[in-house]
Task: inverse folding
């Protein structure tokens, strides 16, 4: 399990085999749920016909005592600056975080002795390497902060992971991103992906500022200037007056974005500068790691690993032959890493459908009861393709929900990627979002190279990298700089047949694919979430297995 | 009962040679937490806190 900060999650191993992994938000319906993943654990157990009493061991992804130690140490180190945040930090530590292992035992109703603590970055490292197809690999973990560390260099062999070195606070790429995210008026620990999307609109004219704030040594290690950051004194905002002095005044929190805003270009240029420096530093770290391990394979995990621009940069310019980033590379992934490293097993990941099922029979009963039009279709693939070829959007629900923040083909809003106007309608009416954020394309392995540079790799099935578009046939899913966070699908994937049928109907082979959720909501998991989404978006039909449902 | 396991693991963690210097601070904080818990609210503890500062 992982939790207590953001993106709580649980992963379940039965008899040495990974059988499920699920974020708590999909059950609690609280986006990035910071609590404990009791609901997710119970849902996974129930799906396997098990009860909590059947659980032999629970592995938590970090060490609560080392976490408390870090809070105490930094309260002393930052005195008196950190005094303001100290009472709140201690209330959280002594009120809940310290007792997290007890809370898990109480939540599941099992003896406390079955709960084991882990180590934050080791859990991240395990989540990447033990799910990869590699027998041996270099592993890079980068996030805001674990117990004491922000960054780790590791080596994996078989089911063993050894630490080669770690960087301690305050030198943290994640906390620098958090500070800039706060300066952008976005929620810290939630809006970082928006800053990444914004970067494509800008020019790195603040690169000198970020080179000063983020310096790197020849051995790959880096230092972050703590002056512009306020992760201790003001963790909600994450930045201090020095950042405003260097970059200009911060945006108002949650202010609406407009491409016509007079300061839009400034924000985009700052994002581009941060992204460029991040690319350079991560490439430096990866190169140093390669020199130490001589491995042709790299696994990356931690919140910063979700930065698909940086991953693409490492793939394009780094020394590794293969790079793997699993879909829940952030803190949610810690649950998976904790259980795999706790048990010492490998679970190479070939798909992301590890969550709970959507029950079509129950959906039919509920939809009928709610007065929706329900039709059982003979050929759902053909019906979906024909609908999409007519330039309409479709909500697609099949099988188990995805592991990680991306919709990867089981809970999706689909549309033609060639229809730019439809993309605009989706981003303004169906799934409102900042105007600079692109949608992602989905394409079959066989058509991949026709539309995108390179070939499908270990990251493209999980949307954890990006590629440049080769043509202008997919304007609805191509970012302003020509990049796309493309998902590749093979014959075993649910959407492969739909893509083939859509190509027959329309002559196009790329679809727009975005996760099925409303603004501010987690992605749909079960049939009740799916029908709630449909009620809120009456213009878009939904296909659940072979049920065609309209309001 | 399970809380005793946590407390014992916590003390073991801070008894480590490099960490024992934090024990007094931890002790004061835990004592404050216990007083708050026992007195069931801040109002009983407030006069002591004011006297301290």
Result:
């Amino acid at each position: 399990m992982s939790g207590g900060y953001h993106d709580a999650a649980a992963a379940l191993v039965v008899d040495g085999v990974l059988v499920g992994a699920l974020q708590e938000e999909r059950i609690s319906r609280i986006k990035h749920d910071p609590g404990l993943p009791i609901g997710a654990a119970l849902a996974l157990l129930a799906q396997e016909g098990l009860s909590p009493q059947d659980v032999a061991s629970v592995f938590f992804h970090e060490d609560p005592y080392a976490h408390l130690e870090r809070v105490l140490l930094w309260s002393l180190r930052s005195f008196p600056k950190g005094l303001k945040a100290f009472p709140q930090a201690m209330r959280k530590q002594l009120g809940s975080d310290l007792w997290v292992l007890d809370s898990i035992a109480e939540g599941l109703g099992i003896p406390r002795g079955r709960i084991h603590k882990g180590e934050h970055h080791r859990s991240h490292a395990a989540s990447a390497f033990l799910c990869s197809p590699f027998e041996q690999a270099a592993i890079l973990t980068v996030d805001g902060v674990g117990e004491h560390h922000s960054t780790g260099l590791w080596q994996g062999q078989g089911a063993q992971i050894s630490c080669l070195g770690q960087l301690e606070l305050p030198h943290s790429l994640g906390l620098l991103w958090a500070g800039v995210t706060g300066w952008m008026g976005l929620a810290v620990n939630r809006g970082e992906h928006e800053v990444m999307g914004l970067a494509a609109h800008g020019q790195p004219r603040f690169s000198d500022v970020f080179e000063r704030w983020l310096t790197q040594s020849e051995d790959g290690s880096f230092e972050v200037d703590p002056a512009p950051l306020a992760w201790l004194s003001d963790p909600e905002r994450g930045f201090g007056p020095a950042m405003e002095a260097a970059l200009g005044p911060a945006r108002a929190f949650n202010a609406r974005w407009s491409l016509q805003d007079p300061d839009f270009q400034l924000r985009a240029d700052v994002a581009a500068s941060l992204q460029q420096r991040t690319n350079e530093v991560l490439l430096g770290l990866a190169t140093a790691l390669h020199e130490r391990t001589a491995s042709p394979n790299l696994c990356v995990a931690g919140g910063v690993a979700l930065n698909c621009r940086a991953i693409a940069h490492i793939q394009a310019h780094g020394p590794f032959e293969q790079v793997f980033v699993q879909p829940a590379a952030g803190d949610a992934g810690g649950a998976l890493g904790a259980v795999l490293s706790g048990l010492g097993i490998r679970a190479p990941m070939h798909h992301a459908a590890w969550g709970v099922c959507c029950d079509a029979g129950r959906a039919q009963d509920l939809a009928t009861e709610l007065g929706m039009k329900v039709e059982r279709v003979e050929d759902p693939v053909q019906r979906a393709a024909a609908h999409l070829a007519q330039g309409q959007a479709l909500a697609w629900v099949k099988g188990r929900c995805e592991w990680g923040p991306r919709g990867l083909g089981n809970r999706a809003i689909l549309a033609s990627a060639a229809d730019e106007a439809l993309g605009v309608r989706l981003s303004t009416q169906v799934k409102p979002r900042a105007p600079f954020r692109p949608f992602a394309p989905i394409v079959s392995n066989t058509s991949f190279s026709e539309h995108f540079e390179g070939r499908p790799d270990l990251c493209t099935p999980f949307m954890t990298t990006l590629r440049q578009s080769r043509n202008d046939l997919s304007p609805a899913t191509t970012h302003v700089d020509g990049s796309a966070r493309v998902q590749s699908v093979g014959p075993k994937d649910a959407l492969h047949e739909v893509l083939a049928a859509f190509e027959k109907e329309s002559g196009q082979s790329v679809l727009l694919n975005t996760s099925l959720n409303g603004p501010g909501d987690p992605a749909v998991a079960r049939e009740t979430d799916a029908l709630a989404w449909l009620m809120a978006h009456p213009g878009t039909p939904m296909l659940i297995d072979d049920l065609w449902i309209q309001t | 009962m399970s809380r005793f396991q946590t407390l014992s693991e916590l003390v073991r963690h801070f008894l480590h040679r490099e960490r024992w210097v934090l024990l007094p601070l931890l002790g004061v904080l835990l004592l404050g937490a216990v007083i708050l818990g026992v007195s069931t609210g801040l109002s009983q503890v407030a006069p002591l806190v004011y006297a301290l500062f």
